[in-house]
Amino acid sequence: MTPMSGDMPSPQLLEEFSQFFRLLSEPARLQLICHLKQGPMDVAALIEATGFSQSHISRQLGQLQRAGLVSCERDGVRMIYQAQDELVSDLCNLVQKRMKQRLEAQLEQLQIA
Amino acid sequence: MTPMSGDMPSPQLLEEFSQFFRLLSEPARLQLICHLKQGPMDVAALIEATGFSQSHISRQLGQLQRAGLVSCERDGVRMIYQAQDELVSDLCNLVQKRMKQRLEAQLEQLQIA
DNA sequence: TTCCTTAATGCTGGCATCGTCATAAGATTG
DNA sequence: CAATCTTATGACGATGCCAGCATTAAGGAA
Fold it and tell me: Each residue of A22-46: pLDDT tens digit?
């Protein structure tokens, strides 16, 4: 039933994929996204929630914003950040589902042996 | 309709997610996975297909194997590697779909302006 | 204007990872 | 056994990214 192949993505596409995944390869960024998923927050609230330094948070948010995972708007002197789409949640759910399957399989192996 | 929140994943889970995404943050590894998706191959074939050095390929395959994305079996003196599940394809498809949506949105912005 | 608050950015040290060379480990053949 | 072929690994230079300090930029209040 396997169609024997999807085709090989172009090197440029692979490069874009890897850059995107690299964004998610940092716990700090994932954490920020998770917090923002609970609702819009300003930087001060993110500092309070995570304990990270102001400049660190600002940099990470900058990267996430350039990738379109996060948006922001001014509120006076504050910047209110907001999670922009569901993609990261979807990706994490897929990964988690697979982790679970893998552990269950290992469990069965142990019970047989 | 948004349930106003899924809950916040634990730091350990975030760490595992990020480690997994880090695996996919390297074009070389994505490329190896894509080649292996076409069917089982030995290391020599992967060298031929990618132009990477033998030791480089061996290292990357080692990482992918520890994560369960790739499996291998001996055939005499050769090692035949094989892609192990569809997760990576699924993740890439989701990312690609979103990239497309984003570009289409930008296109519309341009036409309005 | 000046002062204060908040967020973004230049610069830097430290650490992790990539990629290569050389070598070791494992398997097969004679 | 030795010789050879294939893959894995130790060591190392180069590169890139993180995380913090200090500074700058931007807005609002007096």
Answer: 999 999 999 999 999 999 999 999 9
